[in-house]
Amino acid sequence: MTLTRRLFTLYDQIDVWLTRWMATYALTIVRIGLGIVFFWFGALKLFPGLSPAEELVRNTTTFVDPTWFIPLLAVWEMAIGLGLIFGKYMRLTLLLLFLQMPGTAMPLLVLPEVVWTQFPYGLTLEGQYIIKNLVLVGSALALGATVRGGRLTAEPEK
Questions:
Q1: How does DSSP classify residue 122?
Q2: Distance in angstroms (rounded) separating the CA atoms of residues 66 and 58
Q3: What digits encode the pLDDT tens for the residues 76-128?
């Protein structure tokens, strides 16, 4: 066997191992990472002035009293986080997440001057904070695809 052929064989073996490892652990890593983000961001909202999103929430939800709404939102996000971290009650956890997401997008419409530097492509830091939720939604959709036992597979069916 030539050196080139051995290198290709070694590459293929490593690729198979890595692909199987990713298929085995990716969703768990996404679930726990997403849970940490939700729990952390929610916990920050329990301490006035600590969450960078607090002012954005206040200015977006002028129709509710922030003295009770922000702590409620904090506990809601922390519940999502705990559900994801521990992988328990995933249907309820994902429902809470998907119910919360439209509220996070509200500033795009309600406070355009806060999220856009140049509509429709120039985003402020607040706008970037909101747009990154697309990744959270995509991650939640991938997790939701597994609530009935679905899994990632490293090998396609033949």
A1: E
A2: 6
A3: 999 999 999 999 999 999 999 999 999 999 999 999 999 999 988 899 999 99
Give how far Cα 76 sits from Cα of 8, 23, 45, 142, Å.
50, 30, 11, 21
SS3 116: strand
Spell out the domain ranges in the chain.
Answer: 24-144
CB under 8 Å to 17, separation ≥6 — which residues?
A: none
DSSP string, 66-119: HHHHHHHHHHHHHHHHHHHHHT-SHHHHHHHHHHHHHHHHHHHHH-HHHHEEET
Q: Report the share of the chain in percent with pLDDT over 70.
A: 99
In single-letter form, the type of residue at position 33 comes to G
Quick check: 143 and 90 in contact, CB under 8 A? yes
Query: For the chain, how many residues are written?
Result: 158
Instruction: Say how many Å lie between the first and final Cα of the chain, rounded.
Output: 29
Instruction: Specify which residues 122 forms β-bridges with.
Output: 118
Q: Torsions phi, psi of 152, nearest 5? A: -80, 150
